[in-house]
Write the structure tokens for this entry.
Amino acid sequence: MTALHDWSLTPSAAVALQRELAPRLILEDRIEAVETIAGVDIGFEAAGEITRAAVVVLAWPSLEYLEQHVHRELTRMPYVPGLLSFREVPAALAAFDALQPRPDLIMVDGQGIAHPRRLGVASHLGLWLDLPTIGIAKSRLCGKHGAVPEARGEWTPLAHRDETIGAVLRSRQGVKPVFVSPGHRLSLPTAVDWVVRCLGRTKLPEPTRLADRLASRRGRVG
DNA sequence: GCGACAG
DNA sequence: ATCTTGTCGC
């Protein structure tokens, strides 16, 4: 019952594809007027056999709820550090198909270019949809950084092989920082700005926080 | 060779 | 990610 799909690549083939795609990323600000922002996250059911992709769309600048959508499908790949997009992006794309006007900006739960080959899940999704994306991860995949300032909104750079790949942001005082990195079509400063602007009084920005709840079915969103 | 390792 | 109870703090 193995559902083969063009996303089901062997690890080495997936790595080769990442190396081919990373150079195509645009890390300059190519983002239009923002009126809607989407948050995406993936959750699992039935001991991981079912993948559940959730997308929540909010209006900017009110952050008012506009719509949500959930797509469920059989899980196609196991979790392998560095290859997360092959496990989650297919389901996320299906969830996005239900959105009529596409969002102007997307916040993804995971890394953008803060990845060994600069192609985290946020970058891969952004490249595929050709939309601006930002990666917001709750923990580090690669790279190193110094002490993170205690004040909310402050950050310290995340570096990897002499490159600045992201920001370790104190999104909420007294709480572990989040790792922000550009996904596609925007710069690091711009990515951090958007995350800070979408922050409520919680650790995660509203789009991602709501998508998280919907994906893990931990409460109502709309 | 020995760790580290998004979700 | 997911499995899980109470508990500390704004």
Observations:
- Residues 84-97 of chain A form the longest helix (14 residues).
